[in-house]
Write a structure and sequence with these properties.
globular, mainly alpha, 174 residues
Length: 174
């Protein structure tokens, strides 16, 4: 699998570099700075796909890179938010597990396009929402929402398990 360094792929890869930086910044209790870097990560995620399509550089490898960087960013953030906000450790583990299942099930490593599902895509967006609300609210000085964050995380754990079960069921019945 060869990755070409297009603008879109570079934007995707930027999330790999941003992830440990945000983690360190969060653990240093610099929430406003973490918010800035998270906004950069979100912007890179919003722009990489449209740029690849507009330039005619959309590839299955680029799609895999994009989703890989998203999964790793979210796993890192949710792991750190376990320490700061009590997000259940099971959630970042399931983020990585469901992503691995997604890649293997789609046969993406052999060049096939990723097979998405509505629930899987919704979960991916919800991981970003949970991490963002935790970080942005902390930056704004709103720190009484931990029970809400934990409840939302458990709902995401349940929906991730349902998504993984659906993928497994589909694979077994194919």
């Amino acid at each position: 699998m060869k990755i070409s360094f297009t603008l879109a792929n570079t934007l995707s890869l930027s999330r790999l570099f941003i992830a440990p930086v945000i983690a360190w910044i969060i653990l240093s209790d610099w929430w406003l700075t973490a918010s800035f870097f998270l906004l950069l990560a979100i912007l890179s995620d919003l722009l990489d796909g449209p740029i690849a399509r507009k330039k005619g550089q959309e590839t299955s490898t680029g799609g895999l890179l994009d989703h890989s960087c998203d999964a790793l960013l979210m796993a890192v953030l949710l792991f750190v938010l376990n320490k700061t906000h009590g997000i259940p450790l099971l959630l970042p583990i399931l983020v990585l597990g469901s992503f691995l299942q997604y890649v293997l099930d789609s046969k993406a490593l052999s060049g096939h396009k990723l097979r998405t599902s509505f629930l899987g895509r919704s979960n991916g967006i919800a991981y970003y929402v949970l991490a963002s609300v935790c970080i942005f609210s902390q930056a704004a000085g709103i720190d009484q929402l931990d029970k809400f964050f934990i409840m939302f995380a458990w709902i995401l754990i349940a929906s991730t398990l349902v998504s993984m079960s659906e993928r497994l069921w589909t694979l077994l019945n194919r």
